[in-house]
Amino acid sequence: MKHRVSVIFALALLTLGSLCAVVESTMRTGFARLQYDGGGDWYNDPEVLPNLAKYVNQVLGAAIPTDQSVVKASDSRLFDFPFIYVTGHGNIRFSDSEITNLRTWMLRGGFLYADDDYGMDESFRREIKRIFPERELIELDASHPLFSSYYDFNAGLPKIHEHDDKTPQAFAMFDDSGRMMMLYTYETNISDGWADPDTHGNPQELREIALSFGLNIVHYVMARK
Fold it and tell me: How far is Cα 118 from Cα 40, in angstroms, rounded to an integer?
């Protein structure tokens, strides 16, 4: 995995415009975790977002807050966060008002990263279809710019957790302008590798791979807002 020098992120921190506004918003609010109903453990591994923020700050010289915010889809605070993360092992269920809020938030520029922690695939796909019945999840391969946004993942999506031993997949949903509104990773559990070393016992090399791909996600989203 070769490091790919990027000037886009550096320019975003120094220039004005919509990209700079998104970066400044993330610097101010940080990342947020989505709390949902339905019975799934939306709260598991609470250290993953703080660890990702610390890694991004270290590598990019950024100043993203390292505490984890938690937000519900029904909360007006949803619109304060440009980057929201959702995970879990079980069922996800949104109310009708939450569906409306999430749709509006994503169409206005919000980005949702969903990482299947093993068991949320069926309910997540169902709820995303409720949010955007007219759009489809599109599978991404290693040729997509996400995979080379900062680090090169030319072999494709890394597999961090065994799950059902299937090939890891990345799916995205785009708005009419081509902006990625949502990324969904399946059969990989990237964020498992953002947890503390003792949480899952992942070796440091695997955690570094997971954090590197996490940085690619953040960098790609910021650079293309």
Answer: 11
Number of domains in the chain: 1
In angstroms, rounded to a whole number, what is the distance separating the alpha carbons of residues 131 and 128? 5
Is 1 within the bounds of a domain? no
Q: What is the mean pLDDT of residues 107-129?
A: 96
CATH number of the domain that residue 78 is part of: 3.40.50.12140
Domain membership of residue 3 (yes or no) is: no
CA distance 180 to 82: 12
Q: Note down the domain range covering 143.
A: 8-223
pLDDT (tens digit per residue) in 14-70 = 333 344 444 555 557 899 999 999 999 999 999 999 999 999 999 999 999 999 999
> 109-120: b or e for each residue (b if 16 or more CB lie within 10 Å)?
bbbbbbbbbbeb
